[in-house]
Specification:
Strands 1, 2, 3, 4, 5, 6, 7 and 16 form an eight-stranded mixed beta sheet that branches. The protein has an eight-stranded parallel beta sheet with strand order 10-9-8-11-12-15-13-14. The protein is about 30% helix and about 20% strand. The chain is built from eleven helices and 16 strands. The structure holds nicotinamide-adenine-dinucleotide.
Length: about 350
């Protein structure tokens, strides 16, 4: 009988530990996320479609399962299980909550359960910041940013942009909720951000006055359809995926993170595909842009629609785990896996039939 392999105890990693690990390391995380994204694009991942659990009695809510596996040197499998309950914010708590499970590459045993909302927001912001950089390389680097929808994700996008070298002369803020706009302005003030901050009551104004527009609303269907608002050809980070009417996409250079993932779940690109019956309006992926296979002309709006890939959560989660492991801060549940002898307590007991 082979000697039993040691099974790592399950570590439970709190949001406080995740935040302490990631805060101040945004530049490193942005590099990790871009590298992982490129690994995924090179086929060194398994990243099946996300599964959306929806509820007839709570139509605005959902819980998404994002299973994934990363190859290369990282070698980790896992699942992010993340809820979106938009009504939470009126009860004073964030919309999204979740856990990330990391599974051992060789045994399949889960070895960590991490608070996932911070990891998710960080990886989303990191890839958005990377896209902002790559999509604006053939145009003047944007110095006027506009945030359209200013909840937690907008805050993370701003934090990662600032940490990766972006600064803005002007920051536009637009939200249907005055409380959200005030909260975001409070965050900007507390983070001692340079640049003039303007709250725009009208959607049109925040777009027209920004060269980099970040959509981070919770809109379920397109609500921005006027092409003239994009006459100045901004770079648009369409993080919330469902704000832009197809006609805006048809007049833009469309870059996605992953074509198969993004053209699903009633995203704006998915609606555009349904309308045309083809994917010709998608010019390529961010990987195509980074690799120089696709150029992004300055003479058109450039729209990045990132569906969000489970492999990115895995990479950031593994980074957090490794950091806490090295610093001796892992909190483990020693007896979580209890049946570790196939035939019971005596390793020499006869095979049960
Ligand atoms: N693509 C990805 O990888 C990815 C990852 C994480 C989150 N997201 C998306 O980011 C979005 C924002 O998430 P969050 O956690 O910041 O949510 P949140 O609830 O904290 O903030 C959303 C804000 O948008 C505002 N809003 C809603 N509809 C609006 C409209 N039509 N116009 C202007 N403002 C509007 C709300 O008032 C709120 O302040 C969600 O749609 C979420 O699904 C995308």
């Amino acid at each position: 009988m082979p000697a039993p392999r040691a099974v790592a105890p399950l570590a439970v990693i709190s949001g406080a530990q995740v935040q302490r690990t990631l805060q101040g390391r945004e530049r490193q995380i942005a590099e990790l996320v871009e590298a992982t994204y490129r690994l995924h694009s090179a086929g060194q991942s398994v990243n099946p479609p996300s599964y959306f659990l929806r509820f007839p009695d709570r139509p605005s809510a959902r819980i998404i399962a994002l299973p994934a596996s990363i190859g290369g040197d990282v070698r980790v499998d896992g699942l992010k299980w993340i809820s979106s309950f938009p009504e939470n914010t009126s009860a004073g708590i964030p919309r999204a909550s979740g856990v990330l499970i990391l599974n051992d590459h060789d045994t399949g045993y889960p070895f960590a359960c991490l608070e996932a909302s911070i990891i998710s927001a960080t990886r989303t912001a990191a890839l958005a910041a990377s896209a902002a950089d790559w999509l604006s390389r053939s145009r003047q680097r944007p110095a006027r940013i506009g945030f359209f929808g200013v909840g937690l994700i907008a805050r993370y996008v701003h934090t990662v942009l600032a940490a990766t070298g972006w600064s803005f002369d002007e920051i536009g803020v637009h939200d249907v909720s005055a409380d959200s706009a005030a909260g975001f302005c409070g965050y900007l003030e507390a983070s001692a951000t340079a640049g003039r901050v303007t709250v725009h009551d009208r959607a049109e104004d925040v777009i027209r006055s920004s060269d980099l527009v970040v959509f981070a609303t919770v809109a379920a269907r397109p609500h921005v359809s006027d092409l003239a608002w994009f006459d100045h050809n901004p770079v648009v980070l369409h993080v919330s995926l469902r704000d832009l009417a197809p006609e805006i996409l048809f007049a833009s250079t469309n870059i996605v993170d992953d074509v198969e993932h993004c053209l699903r779940a009633d995203t704006s690109p998915h609606l555009a595909e349904r309308l045309t019956g083809n994917r010709d309006f998608v010019h390529g992926t961010l990987d195509d842009v980074i690799a120089g296979r696709v150029t992004v002309p300055a003479a058109k709006p450039a729209v990045f629609s990132p569906f969000g890939l489970g492999v990115l959560d895995l990479a950031v989660g593994k980074y957090v785990y490794d950091h806490l492991d090295r610093s001796g801060e892992l909190r483990v549940v020693d007896d979580f896996f209890h049946e570790l002898r196939r035939y019971g307590s005596s390793p020499s007991s006869p095979e049960q039939r």
